[in-house]
Amino acid sequence: MRILSGVQPSGKLHIGNYFGAIRQFVEYQDKAEESLYFIADLHSLTTLRDGTKIREYSHDVALDFLALGLDPERAILFRQSDIPEVAQLYWILGAVTPVGLLERGHSFKDKTARGLPADAGLLTYPVLMAADILLYGTDKVPVGKDQKQHLEFARDICTKFNLTFVPGFDSQDPDGSRTKAPGILKSPEPIILDETAVVPGIDGQKMSKAYGNTIDIFAPEKVVKKRIMSIKTDSTPIEAPKPPDSALYQLLQILAPRDEADEIESTWLEGGVGYGTYKKRLVELFHETFGQARARRKKLEADPEAVSRILSQGARRARELAAPTWNKIVEATGVGIEIEV
Ligand code: TYM
Q: Which domains does the chain have, with CATH numbers?
């Protein structure tokens, strides 16, 4: 099984990124035959137009990956733009992707509704994501729920490519066991965990850089405390039962160990504990969860060269894994240069 996923270097990583995605990345580096995790710097150009910042944030995400437990011996860590075939495949896939499909994109609609200009890159963002996934013959993609539709698009685009470029391809028989015409591209499946599909931010909406409601994993201690203490709560008195539809409650359920989460569930529903007490406990749980990673990151910061080496080695390995699929794409489409392995 081959696992792949990416994170945009568009700011600091938050606990939504961790529980929605990166925690699964760490788990799969042992479970999967190959796992590939990359820094989606090309994607971040849709919102960030500052070379110095993109470089800095890309380096930061690499440090975050390592600090959070990704191991370059067990997982392939790389930067998206180090693989030139990704951008070429993006174009090839774009040639067979209906605009109508992209116009249905939730993320495109949401971002343009919030006032971002409707640039072509924003519209075709899912095509680049499909290229990321399909280039490496990925089986599974661990992501948060906000990426679910992008995965559906990747599957649609995959089928469209195979139907266009593989004579005799039948989407009901993608492996070609009956038709003897297997697809060149493999259809990927998402991995989305129910409990952490949407981690709420301090205002109760989905945690997101764009909403300014994040709790950042590597923020200074004081900032973390302030963010947690400012999680929105209502005026339910200490003695009264609390409404479970609350960001504070959901975050406690995500961060607390199982036994404690059950205990919190009963006190929350019965009443007797105030929001302030719960918030203090959440601060502690934050440090119990991320304390080691925060210390590790400080050490890693001292050696920026090591991070660059890990990323260039990762890119070499990722490109080797891409070669078999890419070379078939070149053969079938008549464009591009084969990768020699
Ligand atoms: P990005 O950088 O926005 O987020 C990285 C990962 O974190 C997850 N996530 C969340 N999960 C649960 N609750 C939240 N509040 C929350 N916020 C973020 C995201 O779902 C994601 O899994 N388009 C992608 C990057 C990408 C990619 C890919 C992913 C580019 N190419 C190919 C997978 C495969 C993105 O913007 O993620």
A: 2-197+304-333 (3.40.50.620), 219-300 (1.10.240.10)
Q: How far is it, in rounded angstroms, from Cα 85 to Cα 90? A: 8
Listed range (38-42, 108-112, 147-151) with the worst mean pLDDT: 108-112
Which residue in 154, 151, 153 sits closest to 190, CA to CA?
151
For residue 330, the model assigns a pLDDT of 98
Check 140, 209, 242, 279 and give the catalytic one.
209
Q: In 111-161, where do the E strands start and end? A: 140-142
What does the pLDDT read at residue 202? 98
Angstrom distance (rounded) from CA 45 to CA 37: 19
**Which protein residue's CA is at the shortest distance from atom 7 of ligand 1?**
17
Q: Count the neighbouring beta carbons within 10 Å of the beta carbon of residue 56.
A: 11
Q: Whose CA is nearest to atom 19 of ligand 1?
A: 144
What distances in angstroms separate CA 223 from CA 144, 275, 283, 314, one per listed residue? 25, 19, 11, 33
Per-residue pLDDT band for 288 (boundaries 50, 70, 90) equals very high
Q: For 62-86, write each residue's pLDDT tens digit.
A: 999 999 999 999 999 999 999 999 9
Give the Cα separation of 191 and 108 in Å (integer). Answer: 22
Q: Output the CA–CA distances (angstroms, integers) from residue 23 to 142, 253, 326, in the order listed.
A: 9, 16, 30
Is residue 222 annotated as a catalytic residue, yes or no? no
pLDDT of 341 above 90: no
How crowded is residue 60: how many other Cβ atoms within 10 Å of its Cβ? 20
